[in-house]
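Write out structure tokens for TetR family transcriptional regulator C-terminal domain-containing protein.
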Amino acid sequence: MEKSEKIKQAFIEYFLENGTHPPSVYAFTKKLKMKEVEFYEYYNSFELLETNIWLDFFKDTVTRIESDSIYSGYSVREKLLAFYYTWIEVLKENRSYASQTWRLIDKRKLKTPTFLTDLKTSFKNFARDLIMEGKESKEVQPRKYLDERYPDALWLQLLMVLDFWVKDRSKGFEQTDAMIEKAVNTSFDLMASSALDSVLDFAKFLYQNR
């Protein structure tokens, strides 16, 4: 096991056993029987380490879906479904850590938690590529200014999926699978159909004639 992975695993174990970060890098590395400077070769803080852990969940997910030979032939809708389903599979392998970390977040705050910042950037880039592909395949209706916000909407959807999964008590998390399907189908129905354009046009009319 590479030293960076050894550090990650030790951090996760400590977090699960104590419900918090180690008191200091010095105390943490001493327990691992390594020099403190070795920790800083990979991470400059526990916050960066935790950010890296969640980013690895994303990278692992993308690697798995893209290694499937049939993935490239999927529609954009199917690609997002594949991402969510695979992401949940990755999280299942780390459920105790992922769920405990998520539960500690103050959901009343609108600011993205520090440990999710890199994941957010990477996912939004992934979503942006899907939206561009969807426009080319006519699965996504181009809408001036509005379609630029689609990656933000899908990021919120990702957080909804995460929150639902953490709270899901159904066998095999089958309710999460159902939620993913409904969420993705609804979002793509809105992005593709003329229904949203009608709603926006009506809202514009009301605003201009109030």
